[in-house]
Amino acid sequence: CKGGRGLKFMVSCDGCHHWFHGDCVGLTENDLIGRGWLCHCCLCKRQLTSLESFLKVQDSDGIQTLKASLEGKVANGFTVPKTGVAVLQQILLNYLQDAASNESMAAYARGFYLSQWYRDDPQGEQQLSFYHARWTSKAPLHEFGIAPTPFSRDAIGRIAAVLGQQRPLARGFDRILERLLVSLQENSPTPRAKALRAVSGIVEVDPGVLGDERVQRAVEGRFLDSAISVREAAMELVGRHIASHPNVAVKYFEKIAERIMDTGVSVRKRVIKIIRDICVSRCEFAKATDASVRIISRINDEETSIQDLVCKTFYELWFEEPACQQAHFTGEGGAMPLEIIERTEQLVDVLRNLPSHQPLVTIIRRSLSLDFCPQTAKNSAASLVSHAAVRNRCEQMCKCLMESILKAEEAHNEEAEIHALPYVLALHAFCIVDPTLCAPSSDPARFAVTLQPYLKTQVDNREVAQLLQSIVFVIDTVLPLVRRPPQNFV
Known about the structure:
Layout: E1 10-12, E2 19-21, H1 22-25, H2 40-60, H3 66-71, H4 85-99, H5 104-120, H6 128-136, H7 153-164, H8 168-171, H9 173-183, H10 189-205, H11 213-222, H12 228-242, H13 246-258, H14 265-281, H15 288-296, H16 304-319, E3 328-331, E4 334-337, H17 338-352, H18 358-369, H19 375-378, H20 381-411, H21 416-433, H22 446-451, H23 462-478
Antiparallel strand pairs: 1-2, 3-4
Helix pairs in contact: 2-4, 4-5, 4-7, 5-6, 9-10, 10-12, 12-13, 12-14, 13-14, 14-15, 14-16, 15-17, 16-18, 17-20, 17-21, 18-20, 18-21, 20-21, 21-23
């Protein structure tokens, strides 16, 4: 496991003298280690050495091998390989031989592998005696001390996969991939789309291929293809794997995000979904704010289905109730879920990068009404629960925004207005949609009273003017909802 010595019980192989954890190789301090112990590699090397001795004895006694009996030739001076691929092959053969007693298919698999290796071996004709000896050899040699613990099925699967990479088809992978990438430059869109589907089949097996610079250049080139079907196929190819592979997401993000302005409706939809998947699956994504700004830029798209997709995306990012129980942060305003605080900060970060708060107003309004959901879902009982949950989250976000405004004032005495501006603008957006969000039933006058001192601020720049305009709107909208305003406020 390469985990270091630590305090675990260790055992040394009598062949290679490497040390192994006892629990990793299935040994305990009670086992008779004094009798000796060989790891799998050394045991297989000993088996191969035994095969080599057997072949030499057969040759020296004049007993011809199967190949010699057929063609009249004897394999003189043949040396059995005892490292690398030959050892892995022997480990696989040993496993299949042990499994053959309980599983008949294991015996057929063992014969299949031996036949396959013989066919792929350039010197197979000269080494037929070696392969025949491996075919007829019996169980592994366990007479030396304690036998090693058998490999798990998963470990054997990985060994089989490594051996498969040594086959001619696997060794020709680069040439096949190169040919497919060249096919992406064909004049007709049909072969380009087929080549993309072929590359997609490779990526399904090994998503790491997307990180290859050649593949990245070729696929990104198809993002700009003249055919919408090819551009969509390229997006589909990357989109299926980009969320689960962080390095791929970072490499492809910029080029994918640029296509959010694509003329093809299907391409724009696919881009929005890919960016959404990245943000949902990777909370720590460094470009999450940029990604959100790009998505929200399509809030007024000419295609209604894209507008719905944008609103649904931000509903899932900001307003959907989390499935698991969330930790809480206790401040002056009471206990607040940390998840609400994080979502509110994300919302404010996006607002900082927007020319106005109008797109945010649209997102909040449509999230509260859930009008992007199918008509059948709107009339269900679950929809009523969702409406209540979204409203509750919006109220919590408004409280969180008010706390952030106060913190900005305390932390930045000289430029408190500038630092508080994005939080006030976000509060303004919530108040436009529903003023009652800024008039909590427990204390309806709280928001207005807290914001009142800002009205005394001297206007000397555009930011302060914008701040006062939003504060005046919030107070003016909330005040009619307060039945008995505090006397000092009036």
